[in-house]
Amino acid sequence: MGPVVERPAEPGTSSSVAELELLKQRAAERIDEAAERLGALSRAIWSAPELAYEEHGAHRELTRFLEREPPAASWAVQPHFGLPTAFRAEWAPPEAAAGPGALQLGFLCEYDALPALGHACGHNLIAEVGVAAALGLRAALEAVAAPPPVKVVVLGTPAEEDGGGKIDLIKAGAFKDLDAVFMAHPSQEDAAYLLDVAERDVTVKYYGKASHAAAYPWEGVNALDAAVLAYNNLSALRQQMKPTWRLHGIIKNGGVKPNIIPSYSELIYYFRAPSMKELQVLTKKAEDSFRAAALATGCTVEIKSEAHDYYNVLPNKTLCSAYMENGKKLGMEFISEDAMLNGPSGSTDFGNVSFVVPGIHPYFYIGTDALNHTEQYTEAAGSQEAQLYTLRTAKALAMTALDVIFKPELLERIREEFKSKLQEEQLLNTPA
User: Fold this and answer.
1) 305 and 344 assigned to the same domain
2) What distance lies between CA 214 and its chain's CA centroid?
3) What strands, in cross-sheet order, belong to the sheet with 300-305?
4) What range does the record give for the signal peptide (predicted)?
5) At a CB cut-off of 8 Å and minimum separation 6, what does 313 contact?
6) Do 385 and 337 form a contact (C-beta atoms < 8 A)?
């Protein structure tokens, strides 16, 4: 452990600034001390990719790491928290009573992979960032002579790529006592936030009637024709879509043999829009297109939405600004506000979390221009080069968490912005 630092004095004084900077330095040093072990953790997850809700190996690696990371058995780990492959690990300074009034800060880990591509979205690095930032924050607090009442929480959140594990955990109450949450996602650049959008996933099933395609095709009802018409209907719909809307899908089942009229077909589609209100409008248009294809072919249709919609992320610019300030000290070069507002984005179940608790979900460069969800990004996510940028990001998150703890006025602004953004979103999504 490094030298003991006095608890930072009244915010704004020169002594308080210097003391806080010493704590940030200690957080960064602790992350560097654990760099080799953190890299091995990330590599172990990357080497054995697992799909949503099936991340048993990654779950085991993460919980064992926290149970064994020196000092021994120092994290209170609940290995199966709300979901079989979720976990919760906690630490609080023994000198400070972490009672009901304690500030609770959560660091989120993702670790599921993509089918066929493996960790092409770098979730092994997300897990590493979450654990590393928590280690850094803890070390800084251990260096304080009289630490404030605070609890550091690491949450393992499975199934981001499919299903929405964070939404399951919201329903299980995992976020109800947290004051702020932190995570970071690999990308092609450093961005304090991107406008991740709302998403709904649907499965569409058409039921027709089989018949011999050559001898008596008139006896059949072609479910593949319905699927193709639906696909084309949605392609035509794009012409009348807002520039910020997205829809994309596949035909998963189109029949079994060319000389049998297909009696069953299946499509999977994702719809995305900037808000839940706009997502409802897009969904209605798409579902009308699906039903039109059924009517045209004589098929019956079943449209089923997945259990969870992903909400758009509510950015907390107060928290993002603090993160950028810390990141710049570490050498990060952030893209502009205009690029953040107008750049490409996806969807994440962190959006749902951002409606429950203030949080930050920045993106970070990992040393490559390769795009997420490609084989090239899978390779980059497992590279040694990515480690420098990953641990730099963890340091920035830990430093930002220290700002939240020792700058009460910052925490108050974060909370006020969260309430304001939530009210704006509720008004936006209220039916006219």
Assistant:
1) no
2) 51
3) 246-253, 264-273, 198-207, 300-305
4) none
5) 193, 195, 196, 348, 350, 351, 354, 361
6) no
Cis peptide before 71 (omega within 30 of 0): yes
Nearest to 127 by CA among 64, 173, 169: 64
Q: Tell me the C-alpha distance between 128 and 132, whole Å.
A: 6
Question: Tokens 């936006």 correspond to what residue?
Answer: 428
Decide which of 264, 292, 310 is a domain's last residue: 310
Instruction: Quick: pLDDT tens for 329-380.
Output: 999 999 999 998 887 789 999 999 999 999 999 999 999 999 999 999 999 9
Read off the pTM.
0.91
More confident residue, 94 or 231: 231
The Cα–Cα gap between 41 and 48 comes to 11
- The pLDDT, as a whole number, for residue 74 is 80
Q: What is the mean pLDDT of the chain?
A: 94
106 and 182 Cβ atoms separated by less than 8 Å: yes
d(CA 407, CA 106): 17
State whether 143 and 215 are in the same domain: no
Q: Are 248 and 320 members of one domain?
A: no
Q: In angstroms, how far is the first alpha carbon of the chain from the final one?
A: 59
Instruction: List the domain range (segments joined by +) for residue 75.
Output: 15-196+313-429
Residues 54-91 have pLDDT tens digits of 999 999 999 999 998 886 568 999 999 999 999 999 99
41 and 106 co-located in one domain:
yes
* CA pair distance 340, 190, nearest whole angstrom: 10
What CA–CA distance (Å, rounded) separates 333 from 325? 11
